[in-house]
Structures are given as C-alpha cells and as structure tokens.
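Technical note accompanying the year-one report. For the benefit of new consortium partners, we illustrate the data format agreed upon in the data management plan: each record pairs a sequence with a structure-token string. No post-processing was applied to the example shown here.
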Amino acid sequence: MMKGEAALKLIAWDFDGTLVDSRPLIEAGMAHALDALGQPRSVMAEWLKYVGLPVEAGIRHTFEPLGLDGDRVLTAYRSFGHTEHEHLLRPFQGIPELLEELRGRDQRMGIATSKRRVPLLRQMARFGWEAWFDPIITPDEVTHGKPHPETLETMQALTGLPAGEILMVGDTPFDLDMARAAGVPSLAVGHGFYPEPALAACGPRAYAPDTAALRDILLAWMD
C-alpha cells in the first residue's frame, strides 16, 4: 500500500452502492412497502439513512420510532418481488473493467456485504462475477452484521491475513466503522449512498469520488 504500511493482499468489497448501483431497486422496493402500509413516501429519506445495514436493522431503525412492527414492514418490503426487478441493478460505470484489471494483476478480492447470500450470488451471476471473489461474507455467515467487526474478523480467520493486509472498500459509514473496529484500513467511495463528509468522519485512508479515482488509488497502493 502506502509507504511504511503492510502489503495489500486482499480487497474486501462492499456490494450495494460500491460495485453496483442498487438505489433504483432499493427505492422501488421501499416505495412498494410504504404504499402497502399506507405510509407517506417522505419516509423514504429516513430509510435511506440506514442503507448499508442488514435490511432488518435498517427497517427497525426507520419504522419502530413510527410505531410500526418491523416484521410487518419487512413482509411488505419483500412482497415487492425483488428478484423480478433485478434488471434495475447496474454496475457503476467502469467497475467491471476495474475488476477485470485487478484480476489480471492477480489481486485477491472478497465481498463483505449486508446483502443475504442467496440474492447476492444470484445478482453476481448476472454480471459473471460469481467466481471472482473469495471469501464472501454475508449476514448469513455472522451473528453480528455491519458495523460490528465480525464480518471482517471472519474474513481474517478464513484467509489467515492480518488486518493490515486487508483493505475494506465501501460507500457507507457502516462499512468504514466496521473496518475501523476491526483494525482494517478502509477506502471510501462517493458514488453510493453517502456524501463525503459523512464518510470522512469515519476515518478512511482515502476518498474516491468516482471509479476513475478509485482505480488510481488502488493501483498506487498495489505498487
């Protein structure tokens, strides 16, 4: 990585908001749930503050203060039929090319996500990415989701790598706080769900506003 720091052995990628633009799918699902529950669309803004957490936790934080049962909201959200609408998901511009370039350099990559394993693998298969990442850690493999460090601690245990040789790349404070708690360096990306000030407060090593900047930083740290 940078001078005086451990070599970069594994890039741990967040998925939604980092590799793929999932906002259209997430907003469509929540709009459906709000309509089904008779809630105003203005609640969407509060919901988006918790994107990056496991969906159950985001729903709990958003809707329990409104007096709504989290299980009821989750049922309404999942009734949208996300599988049938996954065409709304798109990789961010330049991400497929960047991943190909990193693979060509034999850079090991993993996934550290709040998305459940079954939809994650299905969505990765849409882009031909399913064999590109190892390990893949989802809420199904841990007891505590983001921002708890267990996801990255599990990744360390599976790979045998020390924290300093892993880089967490994410677009939310939950990604960066998880990395900080695990002692893992982090890189914030700005094309996801959160503005730069919110990310900078979490102590990332660097901030990439777009994929071009992300590429430049990663390649410099790999040298």
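Partners are asked to follow this layout when depositing records. The chain has ten helices and eight strands.
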